[in-house]
Amino acid sequence: MASEIIVDARGHHCPVPTLRLRRALEDAAPGSEVRLYADDPMARIDVPHFAAGAGFEVLETAQEAGTLSFLVRKPV
């Protein structure tokens, strides 16, 4: 499998992180994984909500030093 696609949206307020994630997932091949980094606390709510509504799978959610990290898979 190819390496994950990285989207760094730190320093941006929602909805920008979610919009950048959506664009990356739309451009990605089926089965690809996209990792989003965001520091807006609203991303903790917005990203899972977007992913569920759009049919993407959130594989991992983590937080370290104020940065949220989401690993999202595009279905095959």
UniProtKB/TrEMBL annotation:
Residues 7-31 form the UPF0033 domain. This is Sulfurtransferase TusA family protein. Pfam families: TusA (PF01206). SUPFAM superfamilies: SirA-like. Signal peptide: none annotated. PANTHER family: SULFUR CARRIER PROTEIN YEDF-RELATED. InterPro entries: TusA-like (IPR001455), TusA-like_sf (IPR036868). Belongs to the sulfur carrier protein TusA family.
